[in-house]
């Protein structure tokens, strides 16, 4: 059996430390709304800060989207459940990076004049998705589901 020198042991320990640290820094977390209000208000989120890069966001209340999230700040997944709703009333930009927007139960996604880009898919198992202005783009996936209502009265839907 081969023995490692002290220097080799230190390198292995440092390698293990940095690997574990890197994995913990990039671990997905779930951020859930606990109240209604503007997305930019930390007090409506269970982690007391606004969602950020890689987060899975669960909306259970009425949220007005008043920030811009795109590119390297993209969310990992957005789930609107229960009677939750997300309104995008202005020209703000929301990008969901690698997974899906999922609408459940009586949830609502209302895109009035904003821009939403989904890199993968939208799955609508219930609720209402309304596009009355702005743009909804699904870049690499599809729009599917088992129920709900899709209302298109303006804007652009690109799949």
Describe the structure.
This protein has one helix spanning 6-25, and strands at residues 30-32, 37-38, 56-59, 62-64, 77-80, 85-88, 93-96, 100-103, 108-111, 115-118, 121-124, 128-138, 143-144, 149-158. The chain has 159 residues and is mainly beta.
Q: Mean pLDDT, nearest integer? A: 82
Main sheet record: 8 strands, parallel
Using DSSP, what is the number of strands? Answer: 14
Number of helices: 1
The end-to-end span amounts to 59 Å
Q: Determine the strand fraction and express it as a percent band.
A: 35-45%
- Regions with pLDDT < 50 over 5+ consecutive residues? none
Q: How would you spell out the order of helices and strands?
A: HEEEEEEEEEEEEEE
Classify the secondary structure makeup into a structural class: mainly beta
- Tell me the Rg in angstroms: 20 Å
Shape: elongated
Helix content: 10-25%
Oligomer: single chain
Compact summary:
This protein has 159 residues and is mainly β.
Task: Summarize the helices and strands and which ones pair or pack.
Elements lengths: L5 H20 L4 E3 L4 E2 L17 E4 L2 E3 L12 E4 L4 E4 L4 E4 L3 E4 L4 E4 L3 E4 L2 E4 L3 E11 L4 E2 L4 E10 L1
Question: Which tags fit this structure?
Answer:
single chain; 159 residues; mainly beta
């Amino acid at each position: 059996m081969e023995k490692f020198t002290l220097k080799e042991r230190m390198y292995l320990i440092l390698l293990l430390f940095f690997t574990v640290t890197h994995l913990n820094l990039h671990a997905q977390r779930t951020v859930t709304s606990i109240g209604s209000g503007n997305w930019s208000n930390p007090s409506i989120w269970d982690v007391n800060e606004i969602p950020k890069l890689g987060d899975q966001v669960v909306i259970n209340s009425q949220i007005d989207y008043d920030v811009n999230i795109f590119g390297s700040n993209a969310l990992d997944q957005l789930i609107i459940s229960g009677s939750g709703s997300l309104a995008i009333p202005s020209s703000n930009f929301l990008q969901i990076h690698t997974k899906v927007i999922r609408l459940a139960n009586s949830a609502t996604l209302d895109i009035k004049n904003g821009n939403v880009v989904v890199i993968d898919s939208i799955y609508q198992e219930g609720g209402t998705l309304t596009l009355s202005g702005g743009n909804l783009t699904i870049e690499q996936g599809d729009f599917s589901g088992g129920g709900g209502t899709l209302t298109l009265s303006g804007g652009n839907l690109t799949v």
